[in-house]
Structures are given as C-alpha cells and as structure tokens.
Amino acid sequence: MSDIIRLTAARLSEKLIAGELSSEQVTSAHLDRIAAVEPDVNAFIHVSADEALATARDVDARRAAGETLHPLAGVPIAVKDIVVTKGMQTTAGSKILEGWVPPYDATLVEKLREAGLPILGKTNLDEFAMGSSTEHSAYGNTRNPWDLDRIPGGSGGGSAAAVAAYEAPLAIGTDTGGSIRQPAAVTGSVGVKPTYGGISRYGLIAMASSLDQAGPVTRSVLDSALLHELIGGHDPRDSTSIPDPVPALVEAARHGDVRGMRLGVVKQLTGEGYQPGVRASFEASLNRLADAGAEVVEVDCPSFDYALSAYYLIMPSEASSNLAKFDGMRFGLRVEPEDGPVTAERVMAATRAAGFGDEVKRRIIIGTYALSAGYYDAYYGSAQKVRTLIQRDFDAAFSKADVLVSPTAPTTAFPIGSKLDDPMAMYLNDVATIPANLAGIPGMSLPSGLSDDGLPVGFQILAPAKADDRLYRVGAVLEGLLEKEWNGPLLDRAPELEGATR
Q: Which residues form the active site (predicted)?
C-alpha cells in the first residue's frame, strides 16, 4: 500500500495504462490509507468507498476490453464538500445541509465521472468556505499532517490535508480568497486557482459568486495540469464561463522554461508581517529561478494595501445574498420555534440560528449591513472601486513582468485554536492571495521548502487572465530545481502520521 499511495497521479496513470496496477488496487490502497489516518487528520466529511470501488472496477473492465480512456481514468480523487455530487451527501461543512443528497452533479464532477476517476469522498472545509483554518466546520477540525496540533489552512484544509497525508493523489478545492493556495502552502502541496471562469462554477454552492473558483490540489505541478485540463473548459450553464479553449497546461508543465521570462516581485506582498523563515524560503527560490535564466524585477501595486478591506466587504455582501436561500423552507435543516405561531419568518430565524455557525453569522451580518440602505455606496460601492484599482495595478504590473511572485501566506501553519478569538488575525492569512481573486487572474502555490520551524512554505505565482499556462511553466522549473536539492518531493520529508506507514 505505501508504495502505491506515494505515487503521483501522473505516475499512477502510467502504471494503470501499462497494466502494472489496476484501478481497484489503487483505489483500495487509498481507502485503506483513509481508514488508517482519518482518526488523526479528519480530512473527509464523507467517504464513498463502495461507489469509488465500483468506478474502479468499471474502469479496469473497460481498459481490459481495449477501450481508450482518459489518461487519469482509474486515478482516485477527493472532492471538496462544497461541490454538489449526485447521490452523495453534500454539506458545505454546515449543519444546515447535514444529510442533503443533491439530485444533480456539478459540471466538474460530471467531467470526473465521464473520465472514470473514482471519487473517494467529500473533504472537510470551513463552513460554506468561510475561514482560513478549517476550524469552522460543523464536522470538526481538520489537522495538518505535518503537525497534528496545527491547522491545514482553509477553507479547503480537507482537500489539502488529504493530498498531503497520502489519502488521495488528487483533490478538488475552491478558492474565493485563497482557499486552495493557502492550504497548499501550509501542507506542502500544490494548489491552483484558475482564471475566473476557466472552470465551470455550475454546481458549486456559492459563497461569493464574483470570486469563487474551483481548481486542483495535488502533489506535483504536472498532476495539477492534468486535472486542470480535465475539468476546465466552457460550460453554457455557467454565465461567467470563458468560451476560450483551455490553454496547453500539460505541455507547459512537461516543458517548463523560465529563460527570458520576467518575474515581478510584488513590493506590497513581501515586507512587514511575513515570518522570517517564509521570507528566506521565498528569496532562496527566487534566486534559483534567476539562476535558471529568469529576470527578477520589482513591481509596485499600491492598491494591494486596501485589498483585504475591500475583500471583506465584497465577499460577505455576496455571501449574505447567496445564503438567503437557506431558509428552512425548501431543503436542508428546518427548525420550528418552540412556542408561539409557526410563521415563515420565525421558522427562518430558528433554522438559521441553529444551522449556521458563528463565522457564517458574522459574515452574513457584515454583508447585510454593507448592502443596507444608506450604507451601500459608502461600503460595498467603495469596495468595488478599490477592486477596479487593484485590477489596474495588475495590468500595470503585467506590462513589466510575465508573472508576479510572492510568498503564498505570511506564516507557516499556526496552532489550532490560536487565532479563533481574533478574526482580524485570521483574515490576514489571506493577504497575499486575495488580490488575485479580486482581479479574476490565475494563481498557483507550490512548496518552496521548510521554514526554520520545520513547516512547509508556499511560493505563489500569478499570471494574467487566461494565461494559466505561465503558472505551469514557472512552477515546473522551480519544482524540478527543488526536488533535485531535496532528492524527491518535499512531502517525503514530512513526519510520520501516527497509526499508519507513509
């Protein structure tokens, strides 16, 4: 089992196609791993063992019959539990949707099923993707495989922890302000937020519709490219879906080259507030890329100083609107008042009070206030103006650089519970990732090494809209340079998880 679960998705694909492994063997090995480490990690809300094995056996039979299948056919995957899955519980990490089984699949899930990827289950997250630590789930904390007393990032800590703990070779995450990239950074995995509209949002339970974007979480840059190409592309059911074809991402990952490329170091994303070990790891990786032929320049994006404030007005405003549908009337939890008349208003109030956690309530209140009469222009309207300024800063920066780079997160994984009582300290974890969401551009986080505390550090790459292939060109080069130094992937250096063998 330990040999199988350590293989990348690309390597598993090669062995499956060559007949050296069966999908049933690969899927069973990962299900065994899940059973062994889940008591410690809690990366999954729901495990779909029977369905995953049925898919695996079907793929094996089709391959044995000579059918030509997708390269990732038979490679198992985990899906963040904010993506709807037909016949499989989808909760968004909330009690208000506990036990809900959707009647349809998200577009990206349809693509996974059509390609023959066994779905291992649904991964844990901060409730409705609102958080940076996966401590706000109604189904318990997820723990970081590097140190079980630390957070795995958020909101998609379950997907990142599942990949980092070798429970799944591939996972789907969503990124509204950094929820793919920040967990990838603190768990030593690779996470990509595609260009907004590059992957269909149909079937994603919306938190902030102008910001949400699904993407891959993996253990290698090539694996992310393979998954990204599979789930990307136009979808007429999503009005924000880009009609352009998916760029040649796998080609870029296989033939990465930074010679002649200009890397823009964002002045506002590298200074005060960044842990010394994080800065040191970032600068060392920057030097490696320069030695490989890249030109390093500094770019100034002054509006980034206001990105966090703008985001925490736009995102809760959209969330308060999107979450209005959870009213105890049509689906999900329904709580009736203990006494007095049973009216729609009183049922809604009782249901939302019981079904939503504190962080969701906090953001709904903020968003409702920002959208209220008399305050709309001062708050939400002003935040949208800042968003425009951030987009202009990116345009100016990309006129000087092919990609922009920064640390993904200002610190390594922090202890569970250490920031729960200080929302502002928690929100600051996304200071480097939020600007990309406000502008709709693609971003990648990949490991750049360990900080002086022995925990992973993430290196962030940002590219212009629809130039996602640049992420993979640069990421593949840095990954290759680092793995030569480390004699293998960074995750091989993670400490042992109790109760299982890596």
A: 80, 155, 179
pLDDT digits (tens, 9 = 90+) for 245-269: 999 999 999 999 999 999 999 999 9
CA distances from 461 to 247, 297, 447, 472, 478 (A): 17, 14, 11, 9, 11
Beta-carbon contacts of 422 under 8 Å, excluding residues fewer than 6 positions away, are none
Residue 271 has a pLDDT of 76
The domains of the chain, with CATH numbers, are: 2-303+388-493 (3.90.1300.10)
Closest by CA to 318, choosing from 176, 207, 240, is: 207
pLDDT of 1 strictly over 70: no
- What whole-number distance in Å separates Cα of residue 128 and Cα of residue 357? 10
Token digits for 222?
Answer: 């090539």
Give per-residue pLDDT as tens, 325-335: 998 888 889 99
Backbone angles phi, psi at 173, to 5 degrees: -125, 175
CB atoms within 10 A of CB 416: 20
Distance CA 85, CA 172 (A): 12
Number of separate helices (H) and strands (E) present in the chain: 17, 11
pLDDT score at 500: 52
Largest Cα separation within the chain, whole Å, is: 73
Q: Which residues are catalytic?
A: 80, 155, 179
The token duo for 259 is 């010679």
Query: CA-CA distance, 469 to 165, in Å (whole number)?
Result: 28
Structure tokens at 180: 């793919």
